[in-house]
Amino acid sequence: MGSRSTAKRADALRSIDAIVQAAAECLGRNPEASLSEIARAAGVGRVTLYAHFASRAEVVDAAMSRAIDRGNEALDAVDLSGDPLVALARYVEVGWHLVDEARALLVAAQRELPAGRIRELHSGPAARVETLVARGRAEGVFRTDLPIAWLVNVLHSVMHSAADEIRAGRLTSDRAAAHITATVLAAFTPPGKPVPEPGAGA
């Protein structure tokens, strides 16, 4: 009896994993992908999908959580020590690609999930930048006349805007990180100080 219930649990976990992966892929291509498409891509029926997820919002939440978890793993590998300017450029280089990959998924999340939940999901990446900005301020490199939360918001807004510009055909992916870094350095530099060249000191 025990082994049968263990097998059932393992099957359920496999189904959930397949659904979440399929949701991330389908919504990553098309934020309006239907639950039927997601179930088909996962190799399960709608009944199975609804046995694990009560609504489209739950499916989107799980897919977004998965993308954020994977993003956190990638960001964990970024060296944010040393010169805050160089560390910021490193963060942008990796963080930008994560935003680029997840931009359609984020559109789906913004349609389905409350703004507070999206903020909560992004709290890991946000905490990283808050720490970096606080260190840059302490070292006199970043401005102190605006709140840290606002500066972090500016960085992430510029990243998301870059994704929109790429979709509109006004920016190419290979130039995005340099544009974002230059814009954010200008925004973060204390008033009256010259804006450092992106990559200076790298």
Automatic annotation (TrEMBL):
InterPro entries: Homeodomain-like_sf, HTH-type_TetR-like_transc_reg, HTH_TetR, Tet_transcr_reg_TetR-rel_C_sf. It comes from Streptomyces incanus. It comes from the Bacteria. The keyword Ligase does not apply. Keywords: DNA-binding, Transcription, Transcription regulation. This is TetR/AcrR family transcriptional regulator. Residues 34-53 bind DNA. Residues 13-71 form the HTH tetR-type domain. The keyword DNA-binding applies. PANTHER family: HTH-TYPE TRANSCRIPTIONAL REGULATOR BETI, HTH-TYPE TRANSCRIPTIONAL REGULATOR RUTR.
